Amino acid sequence: GVATLSMPTLSTGTHSVTAKYGASRYFLSSSSQAVTVTITAQPTTTTLTASSNATITKTAYLKTIASVGGSSNTVTLTATVKGTGVVAPSGIVEFYSGSLILGYGSLNARGVATLTTANLSVGIHTVTALFMGSTNFLASTSAAMPVTVPSQSTRTHLTNRSFGKEADIWI
């Protein structure tokens, strides 16, 4: 007979593998000679996506006190790292704008790392993600991706509360 075994989590390096057959009613037990198996680190590919959110909300009330809402201008970078096997890579991804490091993210069980930053200025930035590699996976870098951080837009909401009625105006 023939027996096969798949071991997708075997670490990189050189391993000595031996097959052993336990005795049955009709056959005696036996062992194979050791075979040397060398496992090399898997190549990886890294892809990068980005989403940005730039808003400022200002609210003013006529005949009341003016108030200003919060603002945000963030970019979320998501790197997906894939190997050639069934096990997702693990490790660290560095996110860059040009040669400036924006930060780090750890790969989750699906091989995905994210970084949300508000440190990019308004304009176009060329960003990349670098998977640092690990024991079982080779390093890889995403293609360069242009990310536009828009200027923060303003939306003003006026509420007229005169004569006992309200009228909302969005500008």
Care to describe what's here?
This protein is rod-shaped. The N and C termini lie far apart (79 Å). Strand 13 (153-160) and strand 14 (167-170) form a beta hairpin. The protein has a five-stranded mixed sheet, with no helix packed on it. With 171 residues, it is mainly beta. It has strands at 13-17, 20-21, 30-31, 35-39, 45-61, 67-82, 92-97, 100-106, 112-117, 123-131, 140-141, 145-149, 153-160, 167-170. Mean pLDDT is 80; it is low at 54-71.
Q: Secondary-structure element sequence?
A: EEEEEEEEEEEEEE
Q: What fraction of residues sit in β-strands?
A: over 45%
- The strands making up the biggest β-sheet line up spatially as 9-6-5-13-14
Ends apart, CA distance between termini: 79 Å
Mean pLDDT: 80
Largest sheet: number of strands, sense, barrel closure: 5 strands, mixed
CA-based gyration radius = 29 Å
Overall geometric form: rod-shaped
Number of strands: 14
Count of DSSP H/I helices:
0
Percent helix range = under 10%
SSE-based structural type? mainly beta
Poorly predicted regions are 54-71
